[in-house]
Amino acid sequence: MTRGALAAFLARTDMPVTAEVVIVGGGIGGLAIARELLAQGMRDLVIVERGYPGSGATGRNVARIRAMQLTEALTHVARACQDKYDRMGDELDFNVLFYRLGYAWVLYEAEELERMRDIVAMHHRIGVRSALLSPDDTLRRLPVLRGGDPVVGAVLNDDAIVHHDAVVWAHLEHLARRPVRLLAGTTVRAIEVGDHGVEAVETDRGRIETRTVVNAAGGWSGELNSLARVVAPNRPLRREVLVTAPLRRSIDAAITFYRPTEGWFNQTLRGEVVMGVVDPDEPNGIDQSSSAAFLRRTASLVTRKAPALADATVIRQWAGMYDVSPDHLPLVGPTRQLDGWWQANGWSGRGMLLAPYLAELLATRMTTGASPSRLEMFDPDRFDPAAKAAGHEQDYYARYAAR
Q1: Average pLDDT over residues 72-85
Q2: Residues 137 and 180 in one domain
Q3: Which residue, 40, 216, 252, 378, shows the most beta carbons closer than 10 Å to its own?
Q4: Average pLDDT, stretch 102-127?
Q5: Residue 377 and residue 256 share a domain
Q6: Mind listing the pLDDT tens digit for each residue in 357-401?
Q7: What is the predicted pLDDT for the residue at 387?
Q8: Residue 9 pLDDT class (50, 70, 90 cuts)
Q9: Are residues 312 and 344 in the same domain?
Q10: Please, which pLDDT band fits residue 2 given cuts at 50, 70 and 90?
Q11: Last residue of a domain, one of 322, 342, 360
Q12: 383 to each of 111, 233, 327, 387, 389, how far by Cα in Å?
C-alpha cells in the first residue's frame, strides 16, 4: 500500500456511531487483537487510543522475545509466541526486525545455580535447548562480564529480540487496508452499562454504541476497568531504560541478572547498549518520567557487573509502565463481572512477547465461543475481586516458586 493510504488511515477524524467491537488501547495488544478478529471474520471494529499507536508500553520497551521461562506452562506458551513472531513477517509482508541475539540469565549465587538446574532440565524435556554454563564458559561466551562481580554460571539460549516500532508499523499497514477505524488522541470518558451488559463507550469525541469492549489499555487498564465498575487487581508500575552511544559490537546476548536486584542490558544492531536496573521500592502508579536516581542506580550496578561499559556515554533515558497482576501473568478473556467486557491486560512486562499469540487465542474465543486450553491460565476471573495487588518481591524467583 502507499504511504498516503496509511497516512489517511491514521488521520481519519470521522466518528463512528456504532461498532461491533471497541478495543481500547492501540499498543501491541490492541493492534494484534484487531488483526486477529478481522482474520477470523469479524468486521466493523474501532480502536480507541488516548495517544498515538504504540505510545504506551509498546513503544517504551526493548522487546525481548524469549522462549526461556521459569515455569513449564509459561515456557510452552512462550515457544508458541516465538513461533508467532517467526511467521509474522510473512503474514504481514513486513520486516519486523525479529532476530536471534541470544538471551542469558547470569547467576551470582550458589542458590541461583541450584534453582536453574531443574529449570534447564525442564527446558530440555519440552524442547528448549538452553545451556547451563560454568563460570569459565560464561566469561568466554559473555566477555563483557570479565573483571566484574564473580559469576557462578549462566543459562544461555538462542532467544530473540524484535523491533517494537517495526511491529507497530507492520500492524498499522495491515489494518489500514481493512474495515477497522483507529481513533488516535481519543480518551474514554465513560462506559454505559445496561441490564444486559455493555451498551456504549463515551469518549471525548462522542459516543460509540457497542455490546463488546476489549480493555487493552496497558498501564491505564485499571482506570478503564473502574469506569465499567469491573474490579481487577492490576497495578501500574514504572520501569526505566537508558541507552548509550554506539559501541563496537561486543555483547553477544541479551543479559539479565536478578541478584542483588533485577537488572539487564543488551546491544542493539546499531551498537547502542540499552540497560536498566529496577528500583525494588518503586511505588505503584502511572509515572512515565525518568529519574536521576535511576541513572545512578543503573550506572553503579551495571558497571560492577560489566566494567567494560564504564566509559559508555548515556545519550537518552525514558520510562514506561508495566501493568502488573498478582501472579505476573496477563488477564486475557471475558469476565463474569460484566457481559461484553473482555480483558487483555496485566502483561507484567511481557506484552511484546505474549500479545500477538494470545490475541489469536482471544479472537478465537470471541468469534467461536470456544476457549482454547492455553487461555485457561490467563482467566481474568482467577482472582478474588477483593484481592489486593501483589507487593514487591525482593526475590524475583519467589513469584514462580509455587507453580
Answers
A1: 97
A2: no
A3: 216
A4: 96
A5: no
A6: 999 999 999 999 999 999 999 999 999 876 666 555 556 776 665
A7: 67
A8: confident
A9: no
A10: low
A11: 322
A12: 31, 8, 10, 7, 10
Residue with cell 477524524: 13
At 155, which amino acid appears?
Answer: V
Domain that holds residue 267: 103-157+237-322
**Which set of grid coordinates corresponds to residue 384?**
478474588
d(CA 71, CA 122): 8
How many domains is the chain partitioned into structurally? 2
User: Any idea what the CATH number is for the domain that residue 395 is in?
Assistant: 3.50.50.60
Measured CA to CA, the distance from residue 184 to residue 162 in angstroms comes to: 24
Same domain, 171 and 278: no
Question: How far apart are the C-alpha atoms of 48 and 180, rounded to whole Å?
Answer: 11
pLDDT tens-digit profile of 203-220?
999 999 999 999 999 999
| Burial class of residue 248 in the structure, from the number of CB atoms within 10 Å of its CB (0-12 exposed, 13-18 middle, 19+ buried) | exposed
Let me know: does 358 contact 372? Beta carbons within 8 Å.
no
> Rounded CA gap, 52 and 327, in Å?
29
